[in-house]
Design a protein that fits this description.
Layout lengths: L2 H14 L4 E5 L6 H12 L4 E6 L2 H8 L10 E4 L3 E7 L2 H4 L6 E6 L11 H11 E8 L16 E4 L9
Helix pairs in contact: 1-2
Length: about 160
């Protein structure tokens, strides 16, 4: 079984578990966040998703928005899911819904350097009713500080993986 199929199986299991937070790591640099969106889209009906990123510009690039990304604006995903964007900066948090079904933090690598990284994660935990996806980009950081928040770890490597 290749790493994509294994990651999908583990994430689908995560979605039906009582666990709240998953850390997705691996060498599939720019596809792990899309995998998380794909999993959410496959197992849920209409929902709200918060996509927290290091910059608004990067969020637009990562999500392939057709117009320049704006904090707090709802972008439609799979014609039924609303994706809201904000950043690691508190100044954008007030523009996003106070409560969402799912959150994706990508890249988690940018948080590793933040002096207030725990505050950023705690805000995500408070906002998210169902599941949180913390997603690495290049796996060059020590993620041990996340152990207190993460219940499941999933690896999505590039070798043998096909695109979703």
């Amino acid at each position: 079984m290749n790493t994509l199929h294994k990651a999908i199986d583990q994430l689908e299991e995560f979605m039906t578990s009582t666990e709240k937070t998953v850390l997705i790591k691996g060498t599939q640099h720019f596809k792990k966040h899309l995998l998380a969106l794909h999993i959410i889209g496959n197992v849920t009906e209409k929902c709200n998703i918060l996509f927290r990123c290091n910059t608004i510009h990067n969020a637009g690039d990562f999500l392939k928005t057709k117009t320049p990304a704006r904090a707090g604006k709802a972008y439609l995903f799979d014609n039924e899911h609303s994706v809201y964007i904000d950043t690691n900066s508190r100044f954008t948090w007030g523009k996003s819904p106070k409560e969402v079904d799912y959150s994706i933090v990508y890249p988690i690598d940018s948080l590793c350097k933040e002096y207030n990284k725990e505050v950023i994660i705690e805000d995500i935990i408070q906002r998210t009713k169902k599941k949180i996806f913390l997603i690495s980009c290049k796996d060059v950081h020590d993620y041990q500080w996340l152990n207190q928040y993460v219940q499941r770890y999933v690896i999505y490597d590039q070798k043998q993986a096909k695109s979703i």
